[in-house]
Design a protein that fits this description.
This protein has 8 helices and 14 strands. The chain is α/β, with parallel strands linked by helices and 329 residues long. The termini are far apart.
């Protein structure tokens, strides 16, 4: 029987694995591919190791079993530790069935997978090169990550975080974010190395996650929901919105920062554009300049944090004018 060149097998495996598949389709693809022969086994293990998809709790247990090299498939591998070393991207699926008419009490079961995965990852001290984490939520409350401190074991090596929310019916009851915003109720966790944050389909209040990201550089929000008080229903934003963050204040605003005194709390100044510039990719873009890194307390610290709005025209000289065109926001 003729065999395909090894390079072509690896290319096919990468193409198939990187396709936009439903979790059920991905599970079938993986389980069937590992049974073909040792060549296909190696190709799909390489694809899986580079871009990991945790489909459910049994798959999480299986994946950590692989990382421990406690699996029969390693009889075909000469360097099994590479599975741990080459993973740079991971996608985790958290899915519930149809939304109930009344919110249940107590901690939801499906969402525990996120906490348990991050705890196990930290305890096992694995995936040192993981840089990108995507979490796909289906019918999950947007405040769940705050109420149950899902990110308390968030990996320090992750620099890109994406939260994607989908709902099978109206998401009104899942958008409540008040728990995370009460004074004195700030979470105890941070996302220490996250530089790029993307939120799709969730509550627009999730933008406040930037206050957990001391190294934040960009925030992208797409198709997010907001409760419209005037019409009494949820409304979805149509246009992607991007926020870019810079350290240090524009020269004309440096005098707004009070001199630091050891007797007083740290004084911060955040300068932000009140209008949008439209980027080359069509996203409405605004800009923030930070005198200091963000922290959770900044949200409600009205005495020690100043938010100063400015117009894009005042700071346009700092940017390449060919990349942005100004529009009303």
């Amino acid at each position: 029987m003729p065999t395909l060149p090894l390079e072509l097998v690896f290319e096919i495996a990468q193409y198939a694995w990187n396709s936009n598949l439903h979790p059920v389709e991905r599970r079938v693809l993986l389980s069937s591919s590992l049974l073909v022969n040792t060549q296909w086994n190696a190709a799909f293990m390489a694809a899986l190791a580079t871009d990991v998809h945790i489909l459910d709790r049994p798959f999480m247990d299986y994946f950590f079993k692989l990382l421990r090299e406690d699996s029969v498939i390693f009889q075909f591998a000469t360097r099994p530790h590479l599975l741990n070393d080459i993973c740079r991207k991971l996608t985790l699926y958290i899915a519930n069935g149809p939304l109930p008419s009344v919110r249940s009490r107590g901690e939801p079961e499906a969402e525990k997978l996120l906490s348990d995965f991050l705890y196990t990852l930290k305890a096992s001290d694995t995936l040192p090169n993981l840089k990108s984490l995507q979490i796909r939520f289906q019918n999950v409350s947007c405040e769940d990550i705050f109420r149950y401190h899902r990110f308390v074991d968030f990996p320090a090596q992750v620099e890109h975080l994406e939260l994607e929310y989908t709902f099978t019916s109206s998401p009104r009851q899942t958008l409540n974010m008040l728990h995370a915003l009460f004074p004195g109720g700030s979470p105890s966790w941070v996302l220490p190395s996250v530089r790029h944050l993307r939120i799709v389909g969730g509550s627009d209040d999730l933008m406040k996650l930037v206050f957990a990201c001391p190294k934040i550089q960009s925030l992208d929000m797409e198709s997010c929901w907001d409760w419209d008080e005037q019409v009494g229903k949820v409304a979805r934003g149509d246009c992607p919105i991007r926020t870019l963050f810079f350290r240090g204040l524009p020269a004309k605003y440096e005098q707004a920062l009070p001199k630091h005194s050891e007797d007083l709390p740290l004084q911060k100044v955040f300068v932000l554009t009140g209008d949008f510039a439209r980027a080359e990719d069509g996203a409405l873009t605004n800009f923030w300049w930070l005198s200091h890194d963000f922290s959770w307390g900044d949200i409600n610290d009205y005495e020690n944090v100043q938010y100063i709005p400015c117009q894009y025209e005042e700071v346009a000289y700092l940017f390449d004018p060919t990349r942005f065109r100004v529009c009303l926001g």
